[in-house]
Amino acid sequence: MTDAVAVLVERLGGRVPKVAVVLGSGLGGLIDEVEDATTIPYSELPGFPQSGVTGHAGTLVAGRFGGTEVILLAGRSHYYEHGNAAAMRQALEALAGIGITTLILTNAAGSLDPEMSPGSVMLIEDHINFAGANPLIGESTDRRFIDMTGAYDPDLRAAIEKAAEATGTTLHKGVYMWFSGPSFETPAEIRMARVLGATAVGMSTVPEVILARFLGLRVAACSVITNLAAGMSAVELSHEETKEMAPLGGRRLAAVLRKMFEEGLP
């Protein structure tokens, strides 16, 4: 048992949640909706990352959301902060160690589809690892050769689609392309991404999906669209725009997740 697992087992006091949600930009408010909450700062969990991104709290919250026992991770570590694609490995290993079987990831992303405007929500069906980094580099066992064909669980995706329909939320679907960041993409890179089949671009999530599959977790992921990508509008891209627009799509995605948990995960 790792140190982080031991701390979680003690602090959770017998709770055995099976699902965890990583909250990206715009979703941090969900922690206020958790009932009977237990809050643990990442600083008290050995191996958990200390995020240096404004808007990411760095807090684990356990409790009931939508009637389901969940763990929410308010904050993640990004590759662009340190160049370590495996920065979330110990945190995800700890979650798996306490019995988490399902991981739902959320993020803020730029849209490559003019009809998918800021404030929209996109269900990720697949991804393109354009950053080229991989969190399993250095893993010595043959487990590193993980199959990514069905990385985004079809049953979870269907449950998210059903919840979106029930809440009247327009749910776009598409392919997420991971760029390393922290600089935003150039217009030429966005034109390339569209040719390669991407629907949205962002600077997170893909390493966590790879790690989660490595650990045997089921995965689903959604993007909150905060902007049209470079060259698609006259607006200059900035992190301030991301923080300003993320709560709009975040509220829509929160309603979908709440409904999905109320109905029960497949």
Automatic annotation (TrEMBL):
GO cellular component: cytoplasm
Any Pfam family the entry gives: PNP_UDP_1
Stretches of the chain forming a coiled coil according to its record: none
E.C. numbers: 2.4.2.1
Keywords, alphabetical: Glycosyltransferase, Transferase
InterPro entries reported for this sequence: Nucleoside_phosphorylase_d, Nucleoside_phosphorylase_sf, PUNP, Purine_phosphorylase
Enzyme class: transferase
Pathway assigned in UniProt: Purine metabolism; purine nucleoside salvage
Listed GO MF terms: purine-nucleoside phosphorylase activity
NCBIfam families: PNPH-PUNA-XAPA, PRK08202.1, PUNP
Subunit-structure text: Homotrimer.
Identification of the protein by name: Purine nucleoside phosphorylase
